[in-house]
């Protein structure tokens, strides 16, 4: 170890550094001369930094395997496949309805054309099939290129094409640079132009910064996430029934909405649970997700009023978009069906027809498609049937009930005509008519439609042997569909059972008896009320009010035939009654004015 230097003054070898000044002094306090104290403290960061290089491992990480079923379709392809299944169901519905009702061959053609128009009028119509369309656009490229192009659809380029593109870009940049330099030189020569260009550049730069800072707004399609339904009500399977109804109107077939509901509830028209019952083949159901299966599988028959809303909307859109006019209801046979169901006679048919004409009932699917009403005054605006938005058969049934109320009252007080020319003399007496309506209701409960209707209560213990056999056959058709599971497990030949034909067959149609002539109204000179006298209007909004038994019986019968609720039927009847009273008041005012004019002339 080298010896320390001696202090030149005192010869001491003990040195120490003062922390405050940084000088080196000996034990006696003498300062060491010619000593340079340097500091190496860095105030700023230097560009030098330590880098640590690591060798990457050649081992590949395991990719997470997706548990999704590759057969299931999603996105636009699933949407297109949904309409494929819906169209297959629609074609089977057309074939089944043509066979059930013995419709002409033109019905299928009309249904096909209306289905195409319906798809074009949807809020989100199905586009071209995405998968096959992409394959046609890609040609015979390898699968990797197809996947890449599906994700980022860019046209591929060869090296020569890329080089030529780069050369073109270079030329373009040079041209832009030359043009910008010329513009800058021109701007320097003109100070006003330079100031205007400077303001424009500042404005554009500020707009770019605002656009850069502003987050992108999500699409309307992106907003519809979460618990929103994938398919709207216009994409639902009930729209196939709406197209079938509109096709019947186009051919002027005398059908009503409840006719479709009955064949649906009887599982004779393919609509309920098509996936479970095998209506859609397994090759198509293999690509359906759980949500798509639920959308394709309605569990109940459509409501009459909801179905009428869809049909009237479709008819209005066809009129406004394509100029296709849907004809009016074939009212004559439908009105006769209404009168027959209510147990009426041809006289009731004639009176109902007269009342319907007086009340200007709408016979079109939408009130805007009906002819305009006659103006009462020249200052009146164009008037439509704005409140006639119920099915036309409901209006006809309500008109028939109005006639029955004018003739019989149906309020607990009897009405008796006092003139032989009164049409009420050609109608049966009230008690005979009500007993006949009760018989019709009893026949309806014992009929075939009661077994398949979800609205009529029926217990198994009340069934006969024939009714029970028909009900078991119906359950087999509804629950099993096309699969013959009992035949596979119990291969018994048909016809071996001895008691199969022993039961009495079920009554499919009600027997109609003629009302005897002795039950017709007789002319009376007593003080009883006359038909149409002391007319009472029952408010449909009175939730605590109860209808008379006679009126309730007729309303229940009418509402069951058209497939609407009793409240709806009472509301329509009330509206027609008030409209009839307004018409009668206007007629009386005209008569009074005419009589005043005659008196003045005299």
From TrEMBL:
Entry's localization field: Nucleus, Nucleolus
Domain Rrn7/TAF1B N-terminal cyclin: 86-275
Keywords: DNA-binding, Metal-binding, Nucleus, Transcription, Transcription regulation, Zinc, Zinc-finger
GO MF: RNA polymerase I core promoter sequence-specific DNA binding; zinc ion binding
Key word Zinc present: yes
Highest taxon listed in the record's lineage: Eukaryota
Biased composition annotated in UniProt, kind: Basic and acidic residues: 130-144
One family name in Pfam for this protein: Rrn7_cyclin_C
Polar residues bias: start-end ranges: 148-163
Chain ranges of the Rrn7/TAF1B C-terminal cyclin domain: 306-478
Recorded family membership: Belongs to the RRN7/TAF1B family.
Identification of the protein by name: RRN7-type domain-containing protein
